[in-house]
Amino acid sequence: MKMKLVRIILPAVLLCLSACSGAQVKQYGVKVVKEYPHSRDSYTQGLFFHGGTLYETTGQYGESTIRTVDLESGKPIIIKHLSEKYFGEGSCIFEGDLYVLTWTNRVAFRYNPDGLEYKKTVGYGREGWGLTTNGKSLIASDGSSNLFFLNSNLTLEKKLQVTLNGRPLRNLNELEWIGGKIWANVYLTDTIVIIDPHSGKVTATINCKGLLPEKEKRSDTDVLNGIAVDDKGRIYLTGKNWPKMYQIELIKP
Predict the structure, then answer these.
(1) Cα–Cα distance measured from residue 127 to residue 199, given in angstroms and rounded to the nearest whole number
(2) Mean pLDDT across the stretch 149-157?
(3) For residue 190, how many other CB atoms are within 10 A of its CB?
(4) Which of 5, 19, 137, 207 has the fewest Cβ atoms within 10 Å of its own Cβ atom?
(5) Which of these, 84, 107, 108, lies nearest to 98 by C-alpha position?
(6) Dist CA 168 CA 251 (whole Å)
(7) What is the DSSP string of 188-214?
(8) How far are the Cα atoms of 99, 132, 160, 169 from residue 182, in angstroms, in the given order?
(9) Averaged over 212-218, what is the pLDDT?
(10) Burial of 219 (0-12, 13-18, 19+ CB in 10 A)
(11) Nearest CA to 46 among 85, 107, 103?
(12) CA distance linking residue 157 with residue 223, whole number of Å
């Protein structure tokens, strides 16, 4: 579940997010525009829209899935289960194929995005965390401060280190390409960062603390993770085993 890997570095991450945001880094909060149901059994790893369809990948050994989701009800339209030996991670559609990373298995899967039919397994030489695309390359995270730009065969084209006021920012997780920038969840925090894809610099932080009210949480509710933008530019956030998905707008605190 990644927890053991990040316990040691988490205090440094939190310190950097709280203390490193200088004047040159914009700071935002979020305003909820609309709420949607989200399946509590979805340990959300990847979330994105494509052609008006909402796609979601979920994690946990024995529970990982790739699914299309009805936004209004939160229920799966098509759901495919990964083998119990795989922990599903980030996903996106690139050059006509749906790519799904796995956490520690060092493979990725390619599917037909229309019916979610399996097409191919591809070797992948690092941990899989988040995945998105700028339309020219796949962009992946592995929990470090690096983002990896890949071609359709998952061959490395470029590695980009992400920094917040000059300091490497680790625990980059689920990714989304929005308005020419990379948005990334910072794992185990309530913060999303907006990253310049050329320099790797964080240009803004988004404080999502309190997005899911305490009354909506239960013992299996986990962290913020899941960023999607639809074809009208509307932005949606959710989390692992959250009962809600939120359409949000950025606000200045």
Answers:
(1) 23
(2) 97
(3) 18
(4) 19
(5) 108
(6) 26
(7) TSSEEEEE-TTT-BEEEEEE-TTSS-G
(8) 18, 9, 12, 14
(9) 93
(10) exposed
(11) 103
(12) 31
Task: Give me the domains of the chain, ranges plus CATH numbers.
Answer: 3-17+25-251 (2.120.10.30)
- CB neighbours (10 Å) of residue 3? 11
How far is it, in rounded angstroms, from Cα 14 to Cα 20? 10
Q: Which amino acid is residue 77, in one-letter code?
A: I
pLDDT at 173 over 70: yes
69 three-state secondary structure: strand
What is the rounded CA–CA span in Å between residue 161 and residue 142? 12
Q: Output the six-digit token pair for 13.
A: 């991450």
Question: Which segment of 1-10, 126-135, 238-247 scores lowest on mean pLDDT?
Answer: 1-10
Question: Residue 50 is encoded by which pair of tokens?
Answer: 């494509």
208 band by pLDDT with thresholds 50, 70 and 90: very high
Residue 9, phi then psi, degrees to nearest 5: -95, -10
CA separation for the pair 240, 252 (Å, rounded): 26
Mean pLDDT of 50-60: 96
What is the C-alpha separation between 19 and 214, in angstroms, rounded? 26
Q: Quick check: 197 and 183 in contact, CB under 8 A?
A: no
